[in-house]
């Protein structure tokens, strides 16, 4: 490149009034377009960080987490093994105690299902893949069925075992045992049980200890899915919800749901991580995380999780969790965490409809149940149409319930009372 100007005419052109005016108009048009789009985009978004957001399991946030996300993007490393970014590997080892950070639970369960599949097929042969069966309750997240198909499990071999209100919609050990025996008699092979702690519809909790006693008889893999509620269990008084975790083969939860960490950040631990490693590439001296995941490249997620833990500390994180949990509202289903499923009581509906008089003949119990559900659906529509709060619903056991979930960093009691 020449040190002196190669085209003096270009300098003259830039100083020409017409060219200057044209460039100025382009700049103004760009700024106007930018500010217009900045106004349009927020109006088309559902504001997940609003203190009036009570719907999905939102991604909570905090200043340390946001700064950590900025650092993650700033360093922009692809730490797929120790040699490519040793500090990234060492920091993840420190934060996770030799677990692994995934992007989300869906990614984690694909890895775990593939691991459980390969473990048993090494012993039985690959032809047995068509006989493998995975189990869960009818409250288990649909991503498990997707993951099963991705790793080659026959979609018909997913057992969504029915739950009932009488057992708080958790998986019955007797029902699990019956399903396993039925499959064995049909020549199938029990492979895997998903035991959720805090299901997506009503945050139901499967009791691990009795379920693991059954799966142990058949050599099954047990995964504890605590995507939402795992963070809740950092409080000692709520550790009871994962009693029996020591019997599980793997455990995962999402930091980005409740622990003030921006997406994507999901923690996964295995009782024996050797099943995720590749003998051909693992040096036995350092961890190469590319063998622990689906993709080769991986973000420096550990830095934002480290900043959250280092800045807030266990005391403040527990305080954050406890601030969202209050035992006064167990309505349509027992409340375990910071979400309640509520509805208008049937008695209130029919007392209002009849004003104390009996309903006319022909209105049976089925009609009453449908009418209560319709009224609760209209209530949810009115809540969301108000623009003051946003909620969703779940239909469990034929009951239409409105879901109010608390978890945002800006949520205060006054907002919940208002909702």
From TrEMBL:
The modification N6-(pyridoxal phosphate)lysine is found at residue 257. GO terms for molecular function: lyase activity. It holds the Pfam family Pyridoxal_deC. Its cofactor is pyridoxal 5'-phosphate. Keywords: Decarboxylase, Lyase, Pyridoxal phosphate. InterPro entries: Aromatic_deC (IPR010977), PyrdxlP-dep_de-COase (IPR002129), PyrdxlP-dep_Trfase (IPR015424), PyrdxlP-dep_Trfase_major (IPR015421), PyrdxlP-dep_Trfase_small (IPR015422). Belongs to the group II decarboxylase family. This is Uncharacterized protein.
